[in-house]
Amino acid sequence: MSAPGPASHNVAERVNYLCDQAMVAVHGTPLADQITAIRQRMSEPLRVAIAGRVKAGKSTLLNGLVGERLAPTDAGECTKVVSWYRQGFGYEVRATLTNGESRELRFRRDDGRLDINLGRFNIEEIDRIDVAWPSSNLARVTLIDTPGLASLTRAASVRTHDFLALGNEDRQSEADAVLYLMRHMHRRDAEFLEAFFDESLANTSPVNAIAVLSRADEIGAGRPDALDSAAHIANRYSDDERIRALCVSVRPVAGLLAETGATLEEHEAASLRALAGIEETELQSMLLSVDRFLKPETSDLLVETRQDLLGRLGLFGVRLAIRKIQAGEAVSAVDLSRILIDASGLEELRALLEQHFTARALALKGRSALASLRNCANDLIQLDRNTGRRLLGEIEQVESATHAFAELRLLHMMLTAQIRLSDDEQAEVNRLTGGGTLEQRAGLDPDATDEQIQQVALAGIARWRQRASSPLLDRNQADAFEIAARSYEGIYAGVAR
Fold first, then answer.
1. Where are the domains of the chain?
2. 44-257+346-358 has which fold?
3. For a surface tag, which of 26, 54, 253, 254 has the fewest beta carbons within 10 Å of its beta carbon?
4. pTM as predicted
5. CB burial class (10 A; 0-12, 13-18, 19+) of residue 320?
6. Structure confidence at residue 297 (pLDDT)
């Protein structure tokens, strides 16, 4: 076996080549199916798992990201199993059973929600549920809803640990990246991120984990400044060096506002308009608490309708919507949808997902593939020692020769404080390693000329290579600065092509 030569810089080409070589070695063995799955994974969208403790708001956030109420948010049976949501040409729900068989499941839309019927199957018989849905928001990413950690049902927590291969060095996570939801950074949240994180880049790393301060609208019992307080807390966490070593960023999101903003209906907007018309003193008294809001005598609006509004918006969201209606900023459901989504922090999270996950999709998928191939090679050693060792050597060669993986190492070293950079330098590293156009990576406007891009690239090459040449640097620093210089070389060469 021999790895692709220097001319092959494409991550997918290198990984697929390795899979082809490995398949020759494992043909006719149980490892062949694993190699086929690894290759298939490279052609799929990036897999992003949504994890967190029970009641962290995982399913609600997933629905907000998809823009439809697909994931169940109650405590039903389907929340106890790992559920995949991927783009499909049509509508289909299937269960993969623990014995490997796949079975189609019946489903229906109930009041806008997806209601899945497990039929004759017990939850213990189901390994995972696959939902194929024609949504543009699933075109570049497959979202995976996981059972709550620290669940009262231990089996549900075990499913999440197994899926993410937490604490298991012999397995590779089935997710390429993770959104971890938490109410606050409690000890158990830090323990999860530490379990997901590994000191080497071979397995998990902070480069593919984002922490979400979820249910941000509920801080301080949903007080008016709840989202501002959540943003302050998230910024404080992001500035904490210990937390930066566990995830690439911390962002506040009000998942309920995001989900409802994406799915709000006109009859709900009409109910909110009716509430906004109540005399101000009575209205303010009514909005002080949930109990007062639901008192029958406070409004002609049915208590059941008000209960539904609370379930869809929470008290914070109801207050926000009414305030915007009274200010003349919203009339229709479309107006309110825009306001709710803007307030939720969903778009900021989408931008972060694009910058850190989607733009690096090939590198993240390739890294997952190499980790899985490494496990296969270790298993192959038990069958054919020499061939297994050669495959391990090929994997190491590809990993060291592919600059996309080197950029992940650079980001990894920065996040884990193995190298010290100024704030401006950290922003530059994020930009350099974040994918995007040549103009974006160079920090220039979209209409920048080729000459301007090359001038910036040459200056970057000189600056970082001069730093890399200092005899006072340790190995990590010298490697990191050399990787940055090579990234600028790639930008320069990209213009020339």
1. 44-257+346-358, 258-344, 423-497
2. Rossmann fold (3.40.50)
3. 54
4. 0.87
5. buried
6. 87
What proportion of the chain, given as a percentage, has pLDDT over 70? 90
pLDDT tens column, 185-204: 666 666 666 666 544 444 44
- Which of 267-289 are b and which e, b meaning 16 or more Cβ less than 10 Å from the residue's Cβ? ebbebbbebbebeeeebeebbee
Residue 2 is predicted with a pLDDT of 43
CA distance 157 to 45: 26
Nearest-Å Rg of the Cα atoms of the chain is 25
pLDDT at 155: 65
Looking at per-residue pLDDT, the higher value among 418 and 222 belongs to 418
Per-residue pLDDT tens for 415-446? 888 888 898 999 999 889 887 789 999 999 99
Q: Give 434's contacts (C-beta < 8 A, 6+ positions apart).
A: 355, 356, 359, 360, 440, 441
Per-residue confidence (pLDDT) for residue 3, from 0 to 100: 43
What are the angstrom distances between the C-alpha of 451 and each of 39, 135, 438?
A: 39, 40, 12
Please tell me the distance from the alpha carbon of residue 434 to that of residue 230, in angstroms, as a whole number: 26
Pairwise pLDDT comparison (223 vs 263), residue with the higher score:
263
Please tell me the distance from the alpha carbon of residue 93 to that of residue 132, in angstroms, as a whole number. 6
Residue 391 pLDDT exceeds 60? yes
Q: What is the 3-state secondary structure (H, E, C) of the chain?
A: CCCCCCCCCCHHHHHHHHHHHHHHHHCCCCHHHHHHHHHHHHHCCEEEEEEEECCCCHHHHHHHHHCCCCCCCCCCHHHHCEEEEEECCCCEEEEEECCCCEEECEEEEECCEEEEECCCCCHHHEEEEEEEECCHHHCCEEEEECCCECCCCHHHHHHHHHHHCCCCCCCCCCCCEEEEEECCCCHHHHHHHHHHCCCCCCCCCHHHEEEEECCHHHCCCCCCCHHHHHHHHHHHHHCCHHHHCCCCEEEECCHHHHHHHHHCCHHHHHHHHHHHCCCHHHHHHHCCCHHHHCCHHHCCCCHHHHHHHHHHHHHHHHHHHHHHHHCCCCCCHHHHHHHHHHHHCHHHHHHHHHHHCHHHHHHHHHHHHHHHHHHHHHHHHHHCHHHHHHHHHHHHHHHHHCHHHHHHHHHHHHHCCCCCCCHHHHHHHHHHCCCCCHHHHHCCCCCCCHHHHHHHHHHHHHHHHHHHCCCCCCHHHHHHHHHHHHHHHHHHHHHHC
pLDDT tens-digit readout, 274-319: 999 999 999 999 999 999 999 998 888 999 999 999 999 999 999 9
Cα–Cα dist 238/240, whole Å: 5
